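Re: [ENG-882] Designed sequences occasionally contain unexpected residues at chain ends

Forwarding the minimal case from QA. Structure tokens:
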């Protein structure tokens, strides 16, 4: 009887293992000899593009079959153009993936932007390496190192911005309206790489972006100093949510926190087959948790080491970007144009 029970346990264990081996074997054969394109939704040189290229460099070694991975760019409206492509054009075959961006990509459809022709809840989320801590930076030459000094400044400080709907543009404009900070935002920069270059040249005084948007660490290089942050990651630096006085201001900051908590996600078309979805999610987590990836990402200033699973991202988006109050959407649209 004991021998029979032991035999049954072994057989059951083998049967339970069959789906895993089958999936691994399927992926091995499916991806062998194929080419995967990963698009960034922002121009070359900025933080989104740089992180996408770092991922593309490491990901192939973690996908069974080791496909060839080619990094590409599809900029437009802060990731909205890539979102439209993933949803309405790209085949759901696991060979076209995208890193659209954060704020505009996620908030445009959630706030009724007609240019966003994709359904956030139908896209397939593979994962993200970590939540993104965006910081308000000031050029060191402005001789301002604290929020109190910024409030007291008699000089209008020029910030670079891309377009309406992106946090690099709207958050400084919110600080002007609700905090009455001496800020002027100049829109029209294609991406953060161009803003960082303008900061180096002294053409602008500040940016709202992640640390990885700069070619070198902005503090260590003496380029810029941090003034405010989104999440409590920089010691002693005030939080946007903490300084908000007006209920609408607080609601808008919290809306902008959603894409930053999601982080820079790897996204696939909707209706991606389950086997391919599971393969890519497992490979992604292996990649962004690997020692080599984390070391290189940290060295380059990317947020890493606290990965978000694709299924968790999907659940968070469903809970956070539905039923947004109408008055919050209306106020967002005044900044998002």
């Amino acid at each position: 009887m004991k021998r029979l029970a032991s035999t049954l346990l072994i057989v059951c264990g083998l049967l339970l293992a069959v789906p895993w081996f089958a999936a691994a074997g399927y992926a091995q054969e499916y991806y062998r000899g194929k080419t995967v394109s990963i698009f960034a939704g922002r121009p070359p040189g900025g933080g989104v593009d740089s992180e996408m290229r770092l991922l593309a460099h490491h990901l192939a070694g973690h996908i069974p079959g080791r496909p060839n991975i080619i990094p590409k760019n599809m900029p437009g409206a802060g990731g909205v153009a890539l979102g439209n492509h993933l949803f309405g054009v790209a085949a759901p075959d696991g060979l076209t993936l995208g890193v659209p961006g954060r704020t505009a990509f996620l908030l445009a459809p959630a706030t009724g932007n007609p240019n966003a022709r994709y359904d956030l809840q139908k896209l397939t989320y593979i994962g993200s390496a970590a939540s993104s801590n965006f910081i308000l930076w000031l050029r060191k030459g402005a001789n301002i190192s604290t929020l109190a000094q910024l409030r007291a400044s008699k000089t209008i400080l020029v910030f670079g911005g891309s377009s309406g709907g992106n946090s690099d543009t709207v958050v400084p404009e919110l600080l002007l309206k609700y905090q009455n900070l001496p800020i002027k935002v100049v829109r029209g920069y294609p991406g953060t790489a161009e803003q960082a270059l303008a900061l180096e040249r002294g053409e602008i005084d500040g940016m709202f972006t992640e640390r990885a948007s700069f070619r070198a660490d902005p503090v260590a290089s003496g380029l810029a100093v941090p003034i405010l942050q989104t999440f409590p990651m920089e010691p002693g630096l005030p939080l946007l949510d903490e300084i908000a006085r007006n209920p609408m201001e607080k609601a808008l900051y919290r809306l902008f926190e959603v894409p930053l908590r999601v982080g820079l996600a790897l996204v696939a078309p909707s209706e991606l087959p389950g086997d391919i979805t599971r393969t890519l999610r497992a490979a992604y987590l292996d990649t962004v948790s690997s020692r080599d990836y984390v070391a290189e990402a940290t060295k380059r200033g990317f947020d890493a080491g606290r990965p978000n699973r694709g299924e968790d991202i999907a659940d968070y988006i469903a809970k956070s970007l539905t039923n947004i109050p109408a008055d919050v959407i209306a106020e967002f649209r005044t900044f998002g144009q």
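QA comment: On inspection the terminal residues look reasonable. The chain has two domains: 31-132+262-335, 135-257. Proposing we downgrade this to a documentation issue.
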